[in-house]
């Protein structure tokens, strides 16, 4: 039974979700503000939220009937009968609690009992849990109304990177890594967009209105190229703007993302798109980690560890 739950957790999605908070921690480390306990808890919280999101999506898509026979990609645990709806709902409740507890431990470790920051981050944590739940769950899931891309950009990009950075008390807020956060959000949105391009016919049949459906087949593919291009442009502006010119060659690590985007643009085959979904997710996560490593190396922060 354990292997069924591991499959339902969709472990392949975890590196991308963790890479944003790792990037935020790396930028904080380059400012001399790194704390190992904050880093560990921020990664743990990100992983728990991603698993919560995966379980909630499994349950929500089942209840809304969008995991039908026309769906491409790995089978879902509830729709395939491997896990009962009741058990999955229970798992959603458990991981909601675990995510909240991990976030509370993270906030306590970061800034103790400081009321202003507790209030701000508690609201942000609650919003993150709500975003994980209501992408496909509830009467009016935002993922069924073309808003998934916006929320992915915000929570996988801005919240993950800037939120993680701000959790290090010594990190100067004036040097908040806004452009890397936007780049991370663009890449994460590109992953969702490939998924939505792949599932366009099934989503149309089940009433799931994604942004890809609204844009149409060609528009969604042009949008995908724009997401990848804007992500790389953010880094191309950020590195010189923060006197990190020597890291510009690191942008070559984004070439696999560009190649994958070219393949997505030129293909209508569901099996090809499914392969590019995995590739885009892996390449985006690796790119974030490579840039995080380069930023730490460039600053020499690792010497203090």
Q: What is the CA-atom radius of gyration, in angstroms?
A: 19 Å
- Class per helix and strand makeup: mainly alpha
Overall spatial form: globular
Mean pLDDT score: 90
Counting structural domains, the number is 1
Strand residue percentage: under 5%
3D structure, described in words:
It is built from eleven helices and no strands. With 305 residues, it is mainly α. The protein has one domain (15-304). The longest helix is centred in the C-terminal third of the chain and has 31 residues, at 211-241. The N and C termini lie far apart (41 Å).
Question: Can you summarize this structure?
Answer:
This protein is mainly alpha-helical. 72% of the residues lie in helices and 0% in strands. It has helices at 2-9, 14-30, 36-63, 85-111, 115-133, 148-166, 178-198, 200-206, 211-241, 255-266, 270-299.
List keywords for this structure.
single chain; 305 residues; 11 helices
